[in-house]
């Protein structure tokens, strides 16, 4: 999966979801969020100024999910293919300090929290 490098003056959330229809969701996943100095044009003076902000990698996709479990799996697949997930799990078994695996687990937790908002009756 290829993400797009983005910047923002507001700190992005790890997972953002917008419900488009009954079972259709627009999903945005932001990874590698880091502090960054941005160049912005001052509207009043026209001068270019340094502004505190954030740089991050953005992954987007539309998810069709009819259950909480399907929602969680499909949201994760916006960022990681099934093959990527298997590789991460096997790599983690060999390296318990793997930062990529830690980020994957953080994504899973955030997606599960978001799923609870949309599938409250199914929440475990």
Number of helices in the DSSP assignment: 3
Helix content: 25-40%
What is the global morphology?
globular
The Cα radius of gyration reads: 17 Å
Content-based structural category: alpha+beta
Strand order of the largest sheet: 1-4-3-2
Largest sheet: 4 strands, antiparallel
Molecular structure report:
The chain has 124 residues and is α+β, with helices and mostly antiparallel strands. The protein has one domain (4-119). Helix content is 36%, strand content 38%. The chain is built from 3 helices and 4 strands; from the N terminus they run ββββααα. A 4-stranded antiparallel sheet has the order 1-4-3-2. Helix 1 (68-79) packs antiparallel against helix 3 (99-118). The mean pLDDT is 91.
Quick synopsis:
The protein has 124 residues and is α+β, with helices and mostly antiparallel strands. The protein has helices spanning 68-79, 82-94, 99-118; strands at residues 4-8, 15-21, 24-41, 48-64.
């Amino acid at each position: 999966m290829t993400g797009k490098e983005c910047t923002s003056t507001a700190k992005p959330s790890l997972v953002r979801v917008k419900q488009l229809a009954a079972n259709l969701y627009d999903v945005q996943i932001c990874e590698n969020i880091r502090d960054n100095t941005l160049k912005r044009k001052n509207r009043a003076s026209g001068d270019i100024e340094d502004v505190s902000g954030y740089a991050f990698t953005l992954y987007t996709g539309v998810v069709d999910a009819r259950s909480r479990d399907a929602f969680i799996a499909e949201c994760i697949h916006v960022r990681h293919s099934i093959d990527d997930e298997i590789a991460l799990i096997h790599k983690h078994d060999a390296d318990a300090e793997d930062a990529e695996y830690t980020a994957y687990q953080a994504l899973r937790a955030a997606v599960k929290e978001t799923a609870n908002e949309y599938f409250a009756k199914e929440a475990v």
